[in-house]
Each structure stands twice: as structure tokens, then as C-alpha cells.
Amino acid sequence: MIQNPILRGFNPDPNIIRVEDDYYIVTSTFEWFPGYQIHHSKDLVNWKLVSRPLDRVSQLDMTGIPDSCGVWAPCVTERDGTYYLLYTNVKSFDGPFIDTPNYLVTAPSMMGPWSEPIYLNNSGFDSSMFHDEDGKSYIVNMIVDHREDKLFGGIVIQEYSHEEKKTVGDVHYIFEGSLGFTEGPHIYKKDGYYYLMTAEGGTGYHHAMTICRSKELFGPYELHPENPIISSKDYPEAYLQKTGHGDWVETQNGEWYAVYLTSRPLDIRGRCILGRESGIEKIEWRDDGWPYLTSGLRHARPEVEAPNLPEHPWPEEPSRINFDSEDMDMSFQSLRVPMTEDWCSLKKRPGYLQLRGRDSLGSTFHQSMVARRVQAHHTVTETCVEFDPNNFQQMAGLVAYYNTYHYHYLHVQGDDYWGDKSKKFINILTCNKYEVEEPIERIEITGANKVYMKCDFKGAELQFWYKLDDGEWQKIGPVLDGSILSDDYVDNIQVMYRACFTGAFVGMCCQDLTNQEKTADFEYFQYEEMDWEPLKKS
Known about the structure:
The protein is an all-beta fold. The chain folds into 2 domains: 2-304, Tachylectin-2, Chain A; 320-529, Sandwich (Jelly Rolls), CATH 2.60.120. The chain contains 1 helix and 41 strands. The strands form 9 sheets. Strands 26, 28, 29, 31, 37, 38, 39 and 41 form an 8-stranded antiparallel beta sheet that branches. Strands 30, 32, 33, 34, 35, 36 and 40 form a 7-stranded antiparallel beta sheet that branches. Strands 7, 8, 9, 10 and 11 form a 5-stranded antiparallel beta sheet that branches. A hairpin with a 5-residue loop joins strand 12 and strand 13. The longest helix has 7 residues, at 487-493. 49% of the residues are buried.
């Protein structure tokens, strides 16, 4: 059996492709760099993160973009031995005009190298590519309608010229939508029909995957008789919620599977600290020429029948990273900008990750943060930092992070500018609803060399711990509300813009607001997942 979700933690908008006996899923990363995650499987059961294709600023410049903008839903296809990856680099999502430039990069294989980008259009997001049997290719995307704050304007298609490397000809309007918030289009051709898959209903608890079809590429398209084919909107007690945006694939043995976006709330229709994940369901084609879930249901299941393929597990990933390599571990990402030697070094002090303090945690420009996804409902994360600040504007430590205005931060900091520069303190900083608070009085740790930090994150409860040098672990501060690190919470209180699409991360960071380039050395990073779920699987 396949256990859902197949890609846990923040891994939304799955796009799947089979390359002979290998399967690859590409998922969105938004403001996290490098752009997109590619997971690899040989059996649709076991998945391994193998690549992030948008790995340089010439492909993906996200400096200064707002939270939850950046790299949105991917599409990867193959034609004549070349792989085409389409992406949107969203620059803004506030106000009537949404800046959603779409680009295309190519590669000789799924593992790259990926080319410099080709600009396609700025008419909407979730762009995809369809290659027809006559050799022509087309770009499909939703269009942004700025009039009367409508936003979702339907689905359009335009031919793409491989010779000219640009879109050509007329833009054809092919689908208005059926449930509203129509996005995520993919076109497939089977048995003489063009099938258009879309995500509808919004990416929350009314999300859905819908199908329509036509004998002609430009329509008109008729809706699936049991539309939507995947949705949990009428099943509030289902283990997998928010099911929708996705893709499908045929195995080498003729079996069909759909992958889709999903979330696992802490309670019924509650907050989802793990963000939007990726799941899988088996589908069948019936005599009427339409796809259905083989289960006969509309909502997705925690366990799904595996395909008739040889089992192929991957080696288990180590829980502890000791920074004894010159290459950063694949689990880590940075915010908006690449991890470059000038601020993030594994070489300057061998055996340590050295971060040079830069912007604050509220910055959308040059933060010095290295973090990984939270992928289970109970995790324990631990690190050790050596840091000698001169004042309170120099900080380093362990952060549980959602975006620039929602985080919990256990950190070492210095004294006041007018105080004793040799004094050192440990403190907690929480940012919630744009407001910053310190839930405890700072604790003096002057003379301590190594400061060990731990974050026990269980459901909505987040507890920090610390110890000094070779001392004993002790709790620091109260139990904090970890559920504020979720789309659901942020979406309900936002006052600036509408984008809330990521998930909780844990990581290491360093700030120096004085331009003294103070550095922090992290000895290791340990992340462990505990066997605990807040809701029964059903």
C-alpha cells in the first residue's frame, strides 16, 4: 500500500512525469531558494528529494518579493528528448494588478542542467505546456482579471514556437471554470479527446480537482458528469483535507494514478502547520471515457493500492547533520536568495556552518537563514551555536518560522549599546500578527561558549529548551502557540495581501543590524520525527 501523503510537509501543487521506469514529482517552493523540489521514485511508494532545478539568480530572482510569492505551480513535460519546465515567479499579490511573469527552462534530462529562462507572458499564473500529436506545442494558464477584484478569469491557451522561442498566434479562451477560483490547468490527449484538468474552489477546505473534455483543443469543453473527481469539501472528518490541484500519470503497466495537493489539520477543519502536502490516488477509465477514483469515492484515502511495480525503497536519511562536508545538505533551503559563501559557509570553519549576520527576520531581502520543512506533527529539532554578540542588535539561534511576521525565535543576543559589551543573554522572540513580543525576561549566559538549543514542536504546542556547554537541558519560556505557523491562521488575520501558501520551517539564522558582520558558528543540526498524529486516519 502507498501511505499518504507521499510528500510530507510543505510540498504543494504536484506535477508528475514518468521517464521510462522512473517517476518524478515537481512541487512549488514559493519564496524558498533554490526553486522547486524534484522527488524521484521507481514504485510510486517511496520518494526521495533529488534536485532543485532553479538554482541561480539568472533563472530566479526573488529579492524583495512578498511572503508566499515567488515560485508557484510547476509543469514539466518532455518532447523529442528535451524536458520543458514552466514556472511563475510571482512578484506581487496585493491589489488589482497581480504580477505573475511566466518562464520556461529546458534540460536534456530531469536532473538538468536547466537552461536560462525564456519569458512567456504575464497574463496569469500556473502556466503549463501541452504537446499535441501534430508536433505543435501550446502554453496554457489561468488569466488574472483585475476588474472589480475578480482575480480568477478562466483558462487560456496559445501556441508556442520552438523555433522562435516565444508564444505566437491568437490567445484562445477555452474554459470559464465550474466551481470558481479556477487555476492549475493541464491538458492531456487520450482516445481522441482533449482532457483539461483544473484546480478549483480555492486552495482551502473547498479545494477540488475538476475534469472537462473536448474533441477540439480550443473547445468547447464539457464537464465530467461527477465533477469534481477529487475533493474533501463535503467530508470534514477525512484525514486528508484541501485535496485538489494536481496531475496524473500512466505507469509502464497501464495503471493510472493522480497526484494532488492536500493538507492534514490538527483538528477537524483546523490549522495545518505542515502546510500543503502531496498525495496520490489510483484512477480508472470507465466505459464513458471519463476518469474516476477506483475507490468509488471523491475524497482521498490515507492508504492507496500500490502499482504492480518492484518495490524500491531509498536509504533512510540521517537525523543529524554535522556540517563536516563542503556541500549543504539537500534538506535545507534559504529565503529568496542563494546560499553563497559570503554569508553561508561550510569552509571558513571546517566542521561548522558559519552564518554572517545580515537582515532582520522581517526582511524580504537578505536574511541569513538556513532552514528545513517541518514534515510531521511532532518533531524535535536541536542545534548548538557559538556566538559572541556585542549588543542586542546582533542575534543568532534556532527559529520556528512561517513568514516574516509569524515566527518563534530562541536566540543569543548581546547587552544594550550602553551596557557591558561582554555580557551575553538568551531570549525568545515571537512575532504574531505583525507584533513582536518577548514572552520571558532575557537570561544572562555570560561566559558560556556553546549554547545548545532545542525546539519540541508537537501539534499546536511549541516548547524551547536550552543548555550551556556540558550542562543539563532545561525548559525556557512557556509553551508557545505553534499553530500560528500555518496558512489557516495567517490567512484569517492578514491585512496586507492575500498570499498564504507555505508551511512551518525550523532552522538556524543570524542577524547583525549594526553592519559589523558578526558571525555565528553552528556545530550540528538534528531533526527527528516522532510517531504522533492529532487525528484518526479515515
